[in-house]
């Protein structure tokens, strides 16, 4: 009789975030499962805005833990660490954490005297994706380790500025508020212009000249955007409003690289209807999303608003902007006009393109406990509780048959039906106090085909055991960690117990792999 080679045989599927097998106490007093160093760093990195406190961990302690993990793994496992940092700035879209990580990668390898694995130069280059980021990385390095900048940092930055520096980037980011101006960076790293960009030599010379001789620096005629900008800046203030209201005003502002942030200063007054309508055509999708309230306040016409709506809901623009899904929730909550509701709903849907349509019956548990309500960052009014609700609701709406549950000290089903608006359903979630995850699982699990828990994993103690222990071993449990704390609420990395993390929808790809019968790996190794 065949014992193993049967039609129902299933491969043992694994995922990369793994617990160590030990048990400790988490800050709630419940059992916590520590993870191996790679898993701990990954979950922290994808949720770490740097210097930001969480409910259970101060910003400084969190940053120290992040830096220590990067430094250790940069020496022990440089290929994996370099892959993480490049992915983190790209698909992971975590800007500051990746810059800090790259600096710590270089520092650790220099201190240890190791040369195997990806170079510090290549890692630094891989995390610099925006023209202001070379200055950001230098600012972190010098504030942390002093003004002596090592060659790997200099060379990585030199590689990046050849990709990133252009006329518009100089206008937008090379400002007097920056500690490191473009000219300072060029002097420090000795960056030569890209031979494939003949105009870049003139740009670099001008950036140096305007840094050291701002009153006499002349814009080369080959740099047309800068020349057009200087022409606008030379206009008397009394004549500037006429540029905005002229038929070619929008085109002239765009040709001069005039950003919406700079326009008010140039006009010497607030942006009114005419000013917004002139600059809107040259604004990017996320700049539009952030200014919907301002458009309404200025009385932007319905015709212009229709163009704004079309752009922010365009799937190509959503993909290009690479914003977290909860950014659209923030815009929805703060834009007063209903004319933005449907475009924001569509944009949110596009940003959740990786959410799988799960077959069968799914139990989706969304953590609404007190620890989830801290702001994601000092500059954000959004919190992990609402981010969790966005992801959980999107899963429920796409699933064939889903029970959507919110939990904290208590738990309750959240009403939803196919075709409903994600943004409207979010209004049905509440604030539920503590974190009795085990009670929520025991109350709502009814032989579902899978369980998904969106949480910070800091569950309270239960006499019944941990949350994942309440579910039969043959049923897959996916925990989505949105905070990156040190311990988890259950074992992971073994068959049918999986953890992933982050604030974007990219992690859903792991669910899709596992559901299709394939083992999931780190996302940069896919």
TrEMBL record:
Signal peptide boundaries: none
One Pfam family recorded for the sequence: TROVE
Region annotation (Disordered) ranges: 17-36
Matches recorded under InterPro entries: TROVE2, TROVE_dom, TROVE_dom_sf, vWFA_dom_sf
Annotated transmembrane regions: none
Biased composition (Polar residues): 17-26
Transmembrane in keyword set: no
Homology family: Belongs to the Ro 60 kDa family.
Protein name: RNA-binding protein
Organism: Streptomyces silvensis
Lineage: Bacteria, Bacillati, Actinomycetota, Actinomycetes, Kitasatosporales
């Amino acid at each position: 009789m065949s014992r193993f080679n049967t039609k129902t045989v299933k491969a043992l599927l694994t995922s990369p975030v793994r617990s160590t097998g030990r048990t400790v106490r988490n800050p709630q007093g419940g059992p916590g499962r520590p993870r191996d160093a790679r898993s701990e760093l990954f979950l922290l990195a994808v949720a770490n805005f740097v210097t930001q406190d969480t409910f259970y961990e101060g910003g400084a302690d969190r940053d120290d833990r992040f830096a220590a993990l990067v430094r250790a793994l940069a020496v022990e496992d440089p290929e994996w660490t370099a892959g993480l940092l490049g992915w983190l700035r790209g698909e992971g879209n975590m800007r500051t954490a990746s810059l800090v990580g790259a600096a710590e990668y270089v520092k650790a390898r220099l201190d240890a005297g190791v040369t195997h694995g990806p170079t510090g130069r290549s890692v630094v280059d891989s995390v610099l994706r925006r023209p202001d980021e070379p200055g950001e990385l230098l600012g972190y390095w010098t504030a942390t380790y002093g003004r002596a900048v090592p060659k790997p940092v200099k060379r990585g930055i030199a590689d990046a500025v050849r990709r990133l520096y252009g006329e518009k980037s100089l206008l937008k980011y090379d400002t007097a508020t920056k500690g490191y101006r473009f000219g300072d960076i060029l002097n420090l790293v000795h960056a030569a212009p890209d031979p494939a960009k003949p105009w870049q030599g003139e740009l670099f010379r001008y950036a140096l000249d305007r840094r050291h001789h701002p009153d006499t620096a002349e814009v080369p005629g080959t740099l047309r955007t800068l020349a057009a900008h200087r022409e606008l800046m030379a206009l008397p203030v009394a004549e500037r409003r006429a540029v905005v209201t002229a038929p070619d005003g929008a085109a002239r502002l765009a040709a001069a690289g005039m950003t919406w942030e700079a326009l008010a200063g140039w006009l010497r007054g607030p942006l009114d209807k005419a000013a917004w309508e002139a600059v809107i055509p040259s604004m990017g999708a996320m700049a539009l999303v952030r200014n919907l309230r301002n458009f309404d306040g200025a009385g932007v016409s319905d015709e212009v608003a229709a163009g704004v709506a079309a752009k922010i809901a365009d799937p190509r623009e959503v993909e290009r902007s690479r914003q977290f899904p909860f950014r659209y929730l923030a815009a929805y909550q703060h834009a007063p006009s209903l004319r933005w509701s449907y475009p924001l709903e569509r944009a949110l849907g596009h940003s959740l393109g990786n959410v799988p349509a799960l077959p069968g019956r799914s139990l989706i548990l969304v953590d609404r406990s007190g620890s989830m309500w801290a702001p994601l960052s000092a500059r954000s009014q959004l919190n992990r509780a609402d981010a969790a609700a966005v992801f959980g609701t999107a899963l429920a709406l796409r699933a064939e048959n889903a029970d959507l549950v919110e939990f904290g000290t208590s738990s309750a089903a959240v009403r939803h039906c196919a075709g409903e608006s994600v943004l409207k359903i979010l209004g049905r979630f509440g604030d539920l106090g503590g974190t009795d995850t085990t009670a929520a699982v025991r109350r709502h699990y009814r032989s579902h085909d899978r369980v998904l828990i969106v949480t910070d994993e800091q569950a309270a103690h239960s006499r019944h055991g941990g949350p994942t222990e309440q579910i039969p071993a043959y049923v897959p449990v996916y925990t989505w960690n949105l905070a990156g704390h040190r311990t988890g609420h259950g074992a992971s990395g073994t068959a049918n117990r999986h953890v992933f993390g982050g604030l974007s929808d990219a992690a859903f790809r792991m669910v899709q792999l596992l559901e299709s019968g394939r083992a999931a790996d780190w996302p940069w190794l896919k």
